[in-house]
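Service request form, structural biology core

Requester: graduate student, group of Dr. S.
Request type: structure prediction, single chain
Budget code: on file
Notes: please return the result as structure tokens.

Sequence provided:
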Amino acid sequence: MLCCACAVAAAAPGIYDYGYAAPAISHTYAAPVAVSAPIIKTVAAPVVQAEPVDPNPAYSYAYGVADPHTGDHKDAQETLQNGVVHGSYSLVEPDGHLRKVTYTADKINGFNAVVERTGGTHAAPVAIAAPTHVAVAPAPVAIAAPVAKYSLPAIGHPWR
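Core staff response, request fulfilled:
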């Protein structure tokens, strides 16, 4: 009911007239202009040709490490030819033994490995760095603060 009264009062001229009047404005409107929808161009994506698959892939690699400072000695090599992987690796174990693993793998027989362990039972040579001198300082001592006889209320978040 109140909304209807406000609408009537706002629509009736002179009810709330304080000695000034709004200027009379005359609007002219142009006819609507037709706007076409944006034109979307479709561009065909380029066709990507798959690379030909090699029916008989092959690879070969090898590496080796011989570090006299750390005593790290190892090597490995592997080849794939006619669907069969042949490879081997060797390393010097911490007790001085040489471990050599020779393996083959294919789709028919799976993975097969032969492990050989040869050599002495002495530790592998490892270079030891000279000892360094370290300055030692006493650790700081933490002293607890005295406990107050009263406790303050815990202050949390204001919205809790």
